[in-house]
Amino acid sequence: METIQVERHNGVGWLKWNRPEKLNALNETLLREARQALGQLEADESVRVIVLIGEGRAFSSGQDLTIESDADYGTYLEDVYHPLVRALSDCQKPIIAGIHGVVAGAGLSLALAADVRLVARSTKFSSAFIKIGLVADAGGPYHLRRLMRQDVALDWMWSGSTIDAERAEAFGLVTELIEDEAYLARLTAYAETLAAKSPTAVQGMKALLRESSFEDGLAQEVHWQRECGKTEVHQRAMQAFLSKK
Ligand code: T3D
Q1: Which domains are seen in the chain, by residue range?
Q2: 64 lines ligand 1 (CB under 6 A)
Q3: pLDDT per residue as tens digits for the range 6-19
């Protein structure tokens, strides 16, 4: 692939935006290749956790602003962004966004589609869209609404301002804030620790927390707990507990 790099280590699939010279600005090739790479990692049984990261000094500077196109923006969203955003949202495996440097505009929207966000302390978060007269898109508003207070999210989106990682943490956008020197090691340890846990329980937790209604939630609990109860991890843990009695 031209704009995406994929690596697999210790149960973790690393999906890396690879346009460092443009701070991983998102062009059509990258968005389509990312969709393809995500599909491959999802289908690979050796991969239990997926990490999204950016090569170079940024996670992503958002939509590539140098592209000249006559395409209708709505159609472009439907054809190019939404397949990736849907795939991220529908992915049963846990997705971690590892964020450093800059995360802006549609790059932020992709990061918000991850399940958790591990962030290097010097990262700058830019809402950016309004600066070029656009609404936030690529699923960003949906996720912002779930993570943040609506008035604070609107205030930020309307301002188009850039905030530091501490502020983003206060907004609820950061799962774990990490000192820059420790960032990559901690991200790797987090992902590999999660990959070592029961995949049935890990994926079940993700599915249960996404359920929208109470009744759906109860029904899903029944499904996932039934499956978890059959796993070796659970059987071994029960035997270990009982053998100590
Ligand atoms: O289609 C849809 O509906 C989706 C719509 C989405 C809209 C958005 O995503 S809005 C957000 C768009 N992004 C931005 O507004 C950020 C633009 N970039 C910047 O403001 C700055 O680059 C940064 C503040 C992020 C970093 O500044 P700095 O000084 O550290 O780096 P730089 O020198 O500006 O950038 C390095 C290179 O990356 C440079 O290229 P060059 O001159 O070396 O050839 C720069 O032009 C390029 N670059 C950075 N961001 C983008 C970009 N090229 C294309 N598109 C970018 N977004």
Answers
A1: 4-195 (3.90.226.10), 199-243 (no CATH)
A2: yes
A3: 999 999 999 999 99
CB-based contact 80:33 (threshold 8 Å): no
CA distances from residue 24 to 11, 37, 42, 101, 102 in whole angstroms, order as listed: 25, 16, 23, 11, 10
Instruction: Specify the amino acid at residue 7.
Output: E
Q: Is 75 in the pocket of ligand 1 (CB under 6 A)?
A: no
Neighbour tally for 219: CB within 10 Å: 12
SS3 state at 232? helix
Nearest CA to ligand 1 atom 22: 61
Using a 10 angstrom Cβ sphere, with 0-12 exposed, 13-18 middle and 19 or more buried, the burial of residue 47 is buried
Taking only the tens place, the pLDDT of each residue in 12-54 is: 999 999 999 999 999 999 999 999 999 999 999 999 999 999 9
Q: Is the CB–ligand 1 distance for residue 25 below 6 Å?
A: yes
| Strand, coil or helix: 50 | strand
Cα–Cα distance for residue pair 25/39, rounded to 1 Å: 21
Residues 6+ apart with CB under 8 A from 124: 101, 102, 103, 162, 163, 164, 165
